[in-house]
Amino acid sequence: MNHIENVREGIRSIQGNVLRTVLTAMIIAIGITSLVGILTAVDGIQKSVNATFAELGSNTFTIVNNFDPWSRNRGRSAKINPPITYRQATLFAAKFKEKYDAKVSVFANVSGAVEVKFASKKTNPNINVIGVDEDYLPINGYKIGAGRNVNKSDLENSMNVAVLGQELARNLFGDADPVGSYISFLGGRFQVVGMLDKKGELGGGTGPDRVLLVPLTTGRALAPNRALTYTITASPPDVFEGETILAEAAGLMRNIRNDQIGQDDSFLIERADALAKNFEEITGYLRIGGFVIGLITLLGASIALMNIMMVSVTERTREIGIRKSLGATPRVIRFQFLSEAVIICLLGGLGGLLLGLVIGNLLSTVVSQGTSGFVFPWLWMILGMVVCVIVGILSGVYPAIKASKLDPIEALRYE
């Protein structure tokens, strides 16, 4: 009996007990689903993050205030630096633009708990109002879906105009075009001049689709009794070396902030690609964790499969005796039972791959708010099927050896 005939015999044996085969394959499918599903979700989230940072450019960086309230816990007193002022931020922007022909945006969070009203509709008091300039959208990867961006005229005249995030616009206006309508917030009446394309964000919270953008000068007027903290985002041409441009930016900002020689920077510079690398490192750990969880689940499935194969050997003892009496060698018996175990694992693996793809992509879509797209992780799919074969061999080898060692005379007497 050749190997092909052995495989066919194994398939016929599987077909002879469909219910047990389906239940066993489902155990394997659950293990493969957990393995492929988690890894697919991680790949989808990573794809979304990479696409987001790719829009910003490799040299893009952000300058924020350096405030470390937890430093006291590390054995030193906390250093509270003064916030970056409007004068400092605009001075840096002007000098950096002039020297490097770069795009530089200055913006400030006006309030993160604003209720916005339109006619009889109003939002929850969780809208983030940001004062921006005309370069804020392109530098931060936003695109206008309708209307226009904030322009220089709006900034020079402190106009009461607003650009809405897509989710905010849909909550207030539904499917209607919001451009030209008037909304109210923070005691003022503003005309909507633009709506952003959907951007999405990992997780929830006050994301980029729930923002409300106003001219920076208007934003300053909305907070007359408190000093805003300004943030600077710069995007120099990619021809500049990243580390060199960061050093130049740090030197310029230290001079503007009057940081003394030997004193730590009173600000922080965060590179966009550095954030992407940090996230990639985190997803690496998530992949390891997902792989371990999947292997643990498959370990339980392999034990269950081995137990079922042992039961199958016991049930088919007389059949094994007949085969041996007709000339089947122990090698043929071993191969037949191994084939059955591997085929069951492959059937379960195929089902697990489909479920893993669906569940993994669903998770990544939810987490990235629809920006990840559909992911086919070919490496994890191939790995999943290889693992299926290995599990089938490990689960079937002991029952196969036991079956091959049965004495044919005793097996024929078995009732």
Summarize this entry quickly.
56% of the residues lie in helices and 15% in strands. The chain has helices spanning 3-15, 18-56, 86-100, 136-139, 152-156, 166-173, 216-222, 242-257, 272-315, 317-325, 330-367, 378-404, 408-413; strands at 61-65, 103-114, 117-118, 121-122, 127-132, 144-147, 161-164, 182-185, 188-196, 211-215, 230-235, 267-271. The strands form two sheets. Strands 1, 2, 5, 6, 7, 8, 9, 10, 11 and 12 form a ten-stranded mixed beta sheet that branches.
- Secondary structure tally: strands: 12
Give the helices and strands as they follow along the chain.
Answer: HHEHEEEEHEHEHEEEHEHEHHHHH
Helix share bin? 55-70%
Q: Determine the number of helices (DSSP H or I, runs of at least 4 residues).
A: 13
| Radius of gyration (Å) | 32 Å
Largest sheet: 10 strands, mixed
Q: Which structural category do the helix and sheet elements fall into?
A: alpha+beta
Span from first to last CA? 26 Å
